[in-house]
Structures are given as C-alpha cells and as structure tokens.
Amino acid sequence: MSYRIQIAETQQVFFVERGETLLQAAGRADISLPHDCQLGGCGTCRIRLLDGQVRYDEEPSGLAPDQAAAGYALACQAQPLADLVISTAREDEACAEPARHQAIVRGVRPLSLDVLHVELEVPDAGTLAYRPGQYLKLVTGDGLARSFSMASVPSEGRVDLHVRRIPGGAFTDGILPRLKAGDAVDVELPLGTFFYRAKDYRPLLMVATGTGLAPIKAILESLMDDPDCPPVSLYWGMRQPEDLYLHADIPAWRERLYDFQYVPVLSRAGVGWQGRRGYVHDAALADLGDLSEHAIYLCGSPNMIRDARAAFIARGASPEHVYADSFTFQRD
C-alpha cells in the first residue's frame, strides 16, 4: 500500500511505500526536501502537515511536543498514516542559497585535547554570504560530507570551525590529522536555520554544550560593538574545566557586548572547581526566573536541547522564540 503526498507550494506529488519515510520517498522521486542529519535530531527537514497524519518508529529529538501539536513533522523520520498535503515553506527570514566552493585549509591547531580549530579560506566567494549561526558541509577525499557550524562572522573568504574529535571517527581520527595548510577541500554553504533574529529584539539567553558554542560565538561576534545589542546571558556546559576551550577568552567579550553575562557549568568537575555544577539549563533556570521576554538559542546535544526547551517553556518562554541546533554524530 502506498500513500499520495502533495507539496502545497509546488503541487509536486510523490508516493510513499510501506516502511518508507517521507524523505526517502521524496528522494526516490527526485524531489528535493531540505535535510541534513537524517537522524531526527537537527530539525532541518521540518515540514508542516496541512492534511493527514504521520507516525514515527521513535519520537525524534529534533521535534518538540508543541511543534508536533502545531502540525509540524520531520520528513526524515515521519511515515504517513494516510494521504498527505504538506508545506515546505519556511516562515523565516531569507538566507542565501547554498553553493559549492573549493576551500583552502589555512591552519589546523588544537583548542583543547578534544577540539581543533580549523581555518578555511574560500577564495572564489568574496565576502561569504551567510548568517552567523549557520553551518557548512565539508567534503573530503572520501566523498562524504560532514556538517560543521561556522564559528566566525562572514568575512573576506575566511571561515573558522570548531571540530570535536570523535574517537575512532573516520574524519576526526583519519582525515583531519593529515590536513595541512594549502590542502583543498570542497564546502557547501550556507546551510541551516539557526541564526540570530534581530526582529525579536529580546534579551538573549544562549545555552550551549560542547562545540555547540561555535555558532553562538559567531552570533555574539556579529553583535559586538552593535548599539542595538540586547542583554546577553551565555551558559556553556562541559564536563571538566579543561574542556572549556575558550574559557580564558570569553570574559573579554563583556567589553564589546551590552550587559553580557557568562556562566560556565560543569557536570563532572573535581573538588578544585569553584564555579557552577550540574546541568547547564538548570543553572540558567536558577538565575533568570521568568523567561517570557527572552529569545532563547540552544545548541549542543539533543538531550540538552530536549530538556532545556521543555523546562524553559514551562518557565514561561515563548515557543516561537526558542531556536535550536542539535548536534548529532554523523554517519561515516
């Protein structure tokens, strides 16, 4: 048995067979739907159900209950229960169309034992047109694409990445250690819908775990010395003090951001740690009280985003002003 799927904006039609997801069936029909991780974590493939219902083998972490209740679904995991009419329109600010470029590696250096700073130059792109917070796909010699958030503001062809080592990873343990200055790699950018919404003009609560700091760093750098910068609270969760790879640099951001507060939170700190402990979102809840007036940006592990989003909404946060970028391990 198959189900008929119609895309409202283009009137394109494709059919989903039993056991297929919407994304799989669309690809089989040569219909392009936005997607990235294909694990239900990033939310890039979010669509809206205008007619019909879907099911999941397992509830995806990248779709909050209030979003599902509002009729949204993730195409990479959703299986139809009937014929569907779907919308792929993004009710969002316009972003530049992604394009493929050749990039040159300008440097690779450690930021910590587990995080590397990768500096790329894209000579043919001029001033890179992306919104701080977005990500790129990097394609290396094995032909596979890996996604990394851009940790720098758009500039003359330069882009920084924070790459966390995955033990045994084909890229971080195999390809990345061999990259050197002057090597060429292919990149596709810009991608993603995680970026600063100036139209909100609300106090900012930024919550990150791990290298989820990277896109938030780019957003905050774009607000430095901006007279319209709102108050900013940054909560960064790691396990141990040595994991806080930019800890010494972040306090200086106070000089260029309006009313900036930085709170590192460690989940496995030793007795010598004098700062906050536990879950990073719990620290924010303890400090900030009512969140109804905040715009909230969450980036990092799917578990943190799921728990933080639910807790912040329960504390009054507006679901329409909670933005998230979920980092998931990618398939090699």
UniProtKB/TrEMBL annotation:
A Pfam family: FAD_binding_6
Superkingdom classification of source: Bacteria
Gene3D superfamilies registered for this protein in UniProt: 3.10.20.30, Nucleotide-binding domain of ferredoxin-NADP reductase (FNR) module, Translation factors
Keywords annotated in UniProt: Luminescence, Oxidoreductase
Start and end residues of each 2Fe-2S ferredoxin-type domain: 3-92
Cofactor: [2Fe-2S] cluster
Annotated InterPro entries: 2Fe-2S_ferredoxin-like_sf (IPR036010), 2Fe-2S_ferredoxin-type (IPR001041), 2Fe2S_fd_BS (IPR006058), Beta-grasp_dom_sf (IPR012675), Cbr1-like_FAD-bd_dom (IPR008333), FAD-bd_FR_type (IPR017927), Flavoprot_Pyr_Nucl_cyt_Rdtase (IPR001709), FNR_nucleotide-bd (IPR039261)
EC number: 1.17.1.-
Residue span, FAD-binding FR-type domain: 98-197
MF annotations from Gene Ontology: oxidoreductase activity
Coiled-coil zones: none
Enzyme class (EC, first level): oxidoreductase
Transmembrane residue ranges: none
Cross-referenced PANTHER family: NAD(P)H-FLAVIN REDUCTASE, NADH OXIDOREDUCTASE HCR
Family under the similarity heading: Belongs to the Fre/LuxG FAD/NAD(P) flavoprotein oxidoreductase family.
Full protein name: CDP-6-deoxy-L-threo-D-glycero-4-hexulose-3-dehydrase reductase
Classification of source organism: Bacteria, Pseudomonadati, Pseudomonadota, Betaproteobacteria, Burkholderiales
Gene: ascD_2
